[in-house]
Amino acid sequence: MRPVNFDLDVMRSFVTGVELGSFAKAAQKLARSTSAISAQLKKLEAQAGSPLFKKAGRRLALTDTGEVLLNYSRRLLSLNDETITAVSELKLKGWVRLGLQEDLGSFLPTVLGRFARAHPDVRVEARIARNGDLLSRIENGSLDLAVAWGAERTTGYQEVVADLPMQWIGSSHQYLDWRAESGTPLPIIAFDAPCPFHSMATEALNREGIPWLLSFTSSSLNGLSAATEAGLGYTIRTALGLQPGTELLQAGDRGLPALPSIALTLHRREATPDPLTERLSNIVIQAIRSEIVY
């Protein structure tokens, strides 16, 4: 029996559609017709030998086969793109400056490793910082690209990498068992102001008439995590980069209000950057999206 050879072009359409949440958007991004994308998906299902999607209410969700294929497709496309860059006659040299939120610190070795293998003559200067610092450095030109929370800026180029639900987070050791019906103020652990997570969470609490108090503030994510693990209160982040000793809370079980989503956005000063910045931007986006469960 001849082995099946998956078509990387078809896999790219599949991954792009899932990540954008729409195959119509994928068609637009890949400069294809929607009928061409549909034909590619049928081909991919035939090669996989099983449906890739199932109905979940009014939308489509991935089947188990689809989830497995998505993971492998991302890995194959990443290796393909890295190979093309590595064997290209264009030898990029120079340096590029990258800024990331603390929540994304775990991605840094992966991002820098992939970039260094493809471009050994390029130096990357990386900075882990909070939103305000990252965005001001983009504006003054001391960073070439940065990934920050929110999409409220109106200057420069920005691309939403993902839209993630905000989550209440508590200790995995269950030191704190706060309930809304108790009437006691909810102890909140948050970054020093300004912090979009703190602002949106307290707005949600105020709408529901739930009292709260700021029990602990910190200028670092490690400080927030340590205080949360110790049971000093609940903090608010996303599932991305969840720290050891903490866990996502089932908000409804405690009477906590539902929280909105927050955009994770890539920022650059220029819409059309130099090749180094463009390449690193693509690697950063792929690394983040590969960690997100759709």
UniProtKB/TrEMBL annotation:
- GO molecular function annotation: DNA binding; DNA-binding transcription factor activity
Keyword Glycoprotein recorded: no
- InterPro entries in the record: LTTR (IPR050176), LysR_HTH_N (IPR000847), LysR_subst-bd (IPR005119), WH-like_DNA-bd_sf (IPR036388), WH_DNA-bd_sf (IPR036390)
Query: What Pfam families does the annotation carry?
Result: HTH_1, LysR_substrate
UniProt keyword annotations, A-Z: DNA-binding, Transcription, Transcription regulation
Asked if Transcription is a keyword of the record, the answer is yes
Report the residue ranges that make up the HTH lysR-type domain in this protein: 6-63
**Which stretch is the leader sequence?**
none
What does the similarity note say?
Belongs to the LysR transcriptional regulatory family.
Write the protein's name: LysR family transcriptional regulator
Record organism:
Pseudomonas protegens
